[in-house]
Amino acid sequence: QVQLVESGGGLVQAGGSLRLSCAASGSIHSINLMGWYRQAPGKQREFVATVSSSGNPNYGDSVKGRFTISRDNAKNTVYLQMSSLKPEDTDVYYCVLFQAKGNYWGQGTQVTVSS
Predict the structure, then answer these.
(1) Which residues of the chain, if any, have pLDDT below 50?
(2) What phi and psi values does residue 89 have, to the nearest 5 degrees?
């Protein structure tokens, strides 16, 4: 089993920044993909960003150029630095870990961007 604990969500004004963190623990394979999805009530889940265990990032079109994903393999932690935030970035952000043994999701952390 794998546990994911997210932190760093909150309320920020448009144009501001936030940093999300997600620490993974448990049975973690050395080769995996960690990242973030987001979803608001009544909306479809949206891909935000992932980063491979070798450090290769991938971003959703709506966040390219504004968000930066990184990870610390020694700590099994992934980070999402969000800048130039917009009201439409308001969502619950879910940490994910994908590996051969299975796919895991965190509980989610709320990000609210006020206009």
Answers:
(1) none
(2) -80, -5
Contact 17, 83 (CB under 8 A): yes
Q: Write down the mean pLDDT value for the chain.
A: 96
17 contact partners, CB below 8 Å, separation of at least 6: 81, 82, 83, 84, 85
List, for residues 66-86, the tens digit of each pLDDT value: 999 999 999 999 999 999 999
* Cα–Cα distance for residue pair 22/64, rounded to 1 Å: 20
On the 0-12 / 13-18 / 19+ scale of CB atoms within 10 A, 60 is middle
| Residue 61 neighbours by CB under 8 Å, 6+ apart | none
What are the backbone dihedrals phi and psi of residue 25, each rounded to the nearest 5 degrees, phi first?
A: -145, 160
Q: Which of 4, 27, 23, 36 is nearest to 73 (CA)?
A: 23
